[in-house]
Amino acid sequence: MQRRQLIQTAGLTALALSMSLASAQDSNKFKIGLILPMTGQQASTGRQIEAAARLYMAQNGDTVAGKKIELIVKDDVATPDVTKRLAQELIVNDKVNVIAGFGVTPAALAAAPLATQSKTPQVVMAAATSSITEASPYIVRSSFTLPQVSVAMGDWAPKNGVKSVVTLVADYGPGNDAEKFFTERFQLNGGKVVEKLRVPLRNPDFAPFLQKVRDLKPDALFVFVPSGAGAAVMKQFLERGMDKAGIRMIATGDVTDDDQLNDMGDGALGVVTSHHYSAAHPSPTNKKFVEAFQKANPKMRPNFMAVGGYDGMRVIYEALKATKGQGGGDALLAAMKGQIFESPRGPVYIDAQTRDIVQDVYLRKVEKKDGQLYNVEFDVIKGVKDPGKAK
Ligand code: PHB
Q1: Does the beta carbon of 176 lie inside 6 Å of ligand 1?
Q2: CA distance 127 to 321
Q3: Contact by Cβ (8 Å): 329, 120
Q4: Whole-structure pTM over 0.85, yes or no?
Q5: Which of 195, 221, 251, 301 is the most interior residue, by most CB within 10 Å?
Q6: Alpha carbon distance 372, 158 (integer Å)
Q7: 144: burial class by Cβ within 10 Å (0-12, 13-18, 19+)?
């Protein structure tokens, strides 16, 4: 009897010990729940961001302030219901310290209430509608906003022979932002917007819209479609001979996406876009980044999504360091605000008031270098804050 009790007690003690060891081990971990579209129409965004996040960890180690970093990648197929369920599971079951990723605006918005309720920092690495950062005080953004890059094109185009424009945007948050902020600035500069066209986000057929543009004969077509859809627009634009009909394409850099640009063919040569990142950005920091990225992922060229992921990891790592591994959600968030650093895209900082990224915006032209197509920067607007926030 005594012996049995002894064994039982010993067993219980061992169990208790292993449980407390497990929780001690857990408290020595720092978990990042990375929610991305790994399959479906937006899969290139997931692929780019995961590769960049893993590169950042390989370069900077997986132990920070005494904590072992664990990256948990989940595929939300860019579907907000799925994003929400995954965010909930990551926060409640896996007890992640940070949620990150978010390939499209509806996904970022779906997770925002959970970040607020659980006081979990949410690092938005891709989605780019201006209003996202207002959906939760726990959101910090490392990507960009459509107003930030569209205004630059509204200034450039009228000074460069473009007097009339038709706009063509994907019909959801970032497209509406691009349309509004490009149009307002272009008109302020004396340009004429002949027509505003919106295409559905899912499986868009650009043909009827492009036919309409041909009939309207503007000087240029201004385009925004999300990363991954650019090649299809470019192909149909060229197939319909729009360029030969004297209609130029101007766009945000989402269209001449580095992930796809090389496959678009010489028809893309000369297309001018405005954006915050080009793989051809001529800084030593970027050269090192592109080289390391391509060494680790031989078939890929990093695009602006990769940079959003890489810098987002940097923001998380530095917040963990600053809080000496002891911080909860509020302390981490505070340490994310105001970070200032040299990104592969150029100098950036996280605005402490808006929690949005402030960065240089470039005008770029598609050119051939060493037999490959690149967005070559030819002008820069320094330190651009999101113009959407003033509204
Ligand atoms: C978005 O859904 O916010 C989004 C996605 C892809 C982009 C830009 C914005 O290239």
Answers
A1: no
A2: 26
A3: yes
A4: yes
A5: 251
A6: 29
A7: buried
- Classified as helix, coil or strand, 143 is coil
Ligand 1 near 227 CB (within 6 A): yes
The atom of ligand 1 lying closest to the CA of 104 is 2
CA torsion angle 170 172 175 181 (round to 10): 150
Is residue 32 lining ligand 1, measured as CB closer than 6 Å? no
Residue type, 140: V
User: Which amino acid is residue 28, in one-letter code?
Assistant: N
Distance from the alpha carbon of residue 368 to the mean position of ligand 1, in angstroms: 26
For residue 83 and ligand 1, the question of a CB distance below 6 A is answered with: no
Going from the Cα of 226 to the center of ligand 1, the distance in angstroms, rounded, reads: 5
Name the residue type at position 281: H
Q: What is the pLDDT of residues 331-351, one digit of tens each?
A: 999 999 999 999 999 999 999
What's the CA gap between 278 and 275, in Å, rounded?
8
User: Residues 12-27: pLDDT tens digits?
Assistant: 455 445 445 445 556 8
User: Which atom of ligand 1 is closest in space to residue 108's alpha carbon?
Assistant: 3
CB 97 within 8 A of CB 120: yes
For residue range 96-146, what is the model confidence (pLDDT) as tens digits? 999 999 999 999 999 999 999 999 999 999 999 999 999 999 999 999 999
Q: What gap in Å lies between CA 261 and CA 278, rounded to an integer?
A: 11
Q: How far is the CA of 45 from the centre of ligand 1 (A)?
A: 9
